[in-house]
């Protein structure tokens, strides 16, 4: 089945959830009571997505501080000093400015070891609360590179790709468990690959000793090994985004720069979620490189820009993309999550709803 209207994953965290997390951290709220608040936020996320007409649901990633939490919060071995900072780019349209900061407050310090499963807890709750298709979102194993300190992490792993391989094994175990629980849709979030469309990011990977070309070679092979972990029928999607947090982004650049090396080699994936919300994403020509069995989900609705797109404008862009990929291989979503970190983008809940309603409405208009 092809899902025509999707949410990439995260939704804005309600104010009451953020307040409850603060209360949990300062000891004024018990873990038991906090989980009740978390459950309420997930219930509201499900209801919102259903009301907006989305075909497949997430839990809004309400239980995570950051979208990578389903991996990072599952493992031991990340207790070293912070890695080097990263520059996040803002724009007037998003009401943001450039900022250089260290998002990760710790780094790889020992061999990665899985100690719990965040993803199965999330999915079990989600599955029990809807009869609609539900998806689990997991980060790319190379996202561990954001928690890599080239000065100290080498004490645990002589080669960063050894850490990536261990993260891959951990994610494969997560996928097996999700499949056994009845999960039929798994999405891998791979901002690490899409950001390589930007020469500045490629240089950063090289400076860190990770290597941009290795990411596009060995990294793609690791990503392509993940779908093999499911021993039953599961739809696998990969989200190739250039970084999105609090109304800022990591990379700019069209997919042209990586399309030849990436799109034809992602044969294990049934769905590609791509961002096309502004000029930094380039044109649709690289979609020619996608494989015939894949659905291309066009992220035409911005989760960063508070201006709500028009139905006719989005339909026009879908028609433009259909010049390169048949219409029956296309679908629609927002360009990224609304809250890749708990703080979220500079979007109000009302605007978030308008944008999700637009996705559901336009998908019905175009594909019926």
Descriptive labels:
single chain, 368 residues, alpha/beta, TIM Barrel, seven-stranded parallel β-sheet, two-stranded antiparallel sheet
Question: What this model shows, in words?
Answer:
The chain is α/β, with parallel strands linked by helices and 368 residues long. It has a single domain, classed as TIM Barrel (Alpha-Beta Barrel). It has eleven helices and eleven strands. The strands form three sheets. Strands 1-11-10-9-8-7-6 form a seven-stranded parallel β-sheet. α1 packs antiparallel against α2 and α5 runs parallel beside α8. It is globular, with a radius of gyration of 19 Å. The chain starts with a strand and ends with a helix. The mean pLDDT is 93.
Ranges with pLDDT <50 over ≥5 residues?
A: none
Overall geometry? globular
What is the string of SSEs from the N terminus onward?
A: EHHHEEEEHEHEHHHEHEEHEH
Strand content: 5-15%
Give the end-to-end Cα distance, rounded to a whole number of Å: 14 Å
Describe, in short, the structure shown.
By secondary structure, this protein is α/β, with parallel strands linked by helices.
How do the strands and helices of this protein lay out in sequence?
Layout: E1 5-6, H1 15-25, H2 31-51, H3 69-72, E2 75-76, E3 86-88, E4 99-101, E5 113-114, H4 118-128, E6 136-139, H5 160-180, E7 185-189, H6 191-194, H7 199-207, H8 212-225, E8 235-240, H9 256-262, E9 271-275, E10 295-301, H10 311-321, E11 330-334, H11 349-367
Parallel strand pairs: 1-11, 6-7, 7-8, 8-9, 9-10, 10-11
Antiparallel strand pairs: 2-5, 3-4
């Amino acid at each position: 089945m092809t899902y025509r209207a999707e949410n990439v994953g995260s939704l804005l965290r309600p104010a009451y959830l953020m307040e409850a997390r603060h209360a949990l951290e300062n000891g004024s709220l018990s873990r038991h009571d906090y989980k009740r608040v978390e459950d309420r936020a997930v219930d509201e996320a499900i209801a919102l997505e259903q009301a907006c007409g989305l075909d497949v649901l997430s839990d809004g990633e309400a239980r995570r501080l950051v979208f990578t939490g389903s991996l990072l919060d599952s493992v031991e071995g990340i207790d070293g000093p912070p890695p080097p900072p990263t520059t996040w780019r803002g724009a007037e349209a998003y009401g943001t400015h450039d900022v250089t900061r260290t998002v990760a407050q710790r780094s790889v310090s020992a061999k990665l070891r899985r100690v719990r499963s965040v993803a199965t807890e999330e999915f079990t709750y989600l599955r029990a609360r809807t009869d609609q298709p539900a998806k689990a979102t997991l980060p790319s194993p190379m996202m561990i590179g954001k928690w890599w300190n080239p000065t100290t992490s080498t004490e645990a792993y002589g080669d960063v790709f050894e850490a990536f391989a261990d993260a891959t094994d951990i994610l494969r175990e997560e996928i097996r468990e999700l499949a056994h629980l009845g999960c039929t849709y798994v999405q891998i979030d791979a901002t690490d690959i899409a950001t390589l469309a930007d020469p500045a990011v490629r240089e950063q990977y090289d400076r860190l000793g990770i290597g941009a070309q290795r990411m596009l070679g060995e990294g793609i092979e690791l990503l392509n090994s993940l779908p093999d972990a499911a021993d039953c029928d599961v739809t696998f999607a990969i989200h190739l985004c250039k970084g999105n947090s609090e109304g800022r982004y990591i990379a700019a650049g069209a997919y042209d720069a990586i399309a030849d090396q990436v799109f034809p080699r992602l044969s294990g994936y049934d769905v590609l979620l791509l961002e096309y919300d502004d000029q930094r994403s380039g044109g649709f020509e690289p979609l020619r490189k996608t494989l015939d069995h894949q659905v291309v989900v066009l992220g035409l609705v911005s989760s960063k820009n508070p201006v709500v797109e028009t139905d006719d404008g989005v339909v026009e862009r879908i028609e433009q993309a259909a010049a390169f990929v048949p219409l029956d291989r296309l679908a629609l979503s927002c360009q990224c999550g609304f809250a890749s970190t708990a703080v979220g983008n500079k979007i109000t809940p009302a605007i978030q709803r308008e944008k999700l309603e637009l996705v559901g409405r336009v998908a019905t208009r175009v594909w019926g």
